[in-house]
Amino acid sequence: MMFADLVDIDDFRERLGALGVALPQGETPDDWAQRVRAAQPVDGLPELIAALCAEGTTLQPEVRRAIDLILVP
Questions:
Q1: Any residues with CB less than 8 A from the CB of 7 and at least 6 apart, and which?
Q2: pTM reported for the whole predicted model
Q3: Of 19, 13, 30, 38, residue with least CA distance to 68
Q4: What 8-state DSSP symbol labels residue 39?
Q5: What pLDDT is attached to residue 19?
Q6: Taking the CA atoms of the chain, what radius of gyration do you get in angstroms?
Q7: For residue range 41-64, what is the model confidence (pLDDT) as tens digits?
Q8: How far apart are CA 44 and CA 59, in angstroms?
Q9: What is the pLDDT of residue 4?
Q10: Among the residues of the chain, which ranges form H helices?
């Protein structure tokens, strides 16, 4: 069964890639968060994170970890 509201690693990478942040395969959520933070400001990032964290959206643990690390002040 496929869930349309499940965000997996590949989906997360594609969405960030569309914002101009390339996340190479094989990296950890920590690496991704570091790349995203280094690329700031990223147009559309706050909206993307809000959409990913919206009620009804299920994030894989790796995606949740990366988002949490991106949001660390």
A1: 15, 52, 57, 58, 59, 60, 63
A2: 0.83
A3: 30
A4: T
A5: 94
A6: 11
A7: 999 999 999 998 887 888 999 999
A8: 19
A9: 58
A10: 9-18, 29-38, 45-52, 61-71
| Residue 37 placed within a domain | yes
Distance CA 69, CA 29 (A): 8
Structure tokens at 2: 């496929």
| Residue 28 belongs to domain spanning | 6-71
Q: Count structural domains, the chain.
A: 1
| Residue 36 CB contacts under 8 Å (≥ 6 apart), including other chains | 16, 21, 23, 42, 45, 66, 70
Residue 39 lies in a domain: yes
In a domain, 1, yes or no: no
Residue 65 covered by a domain: yes
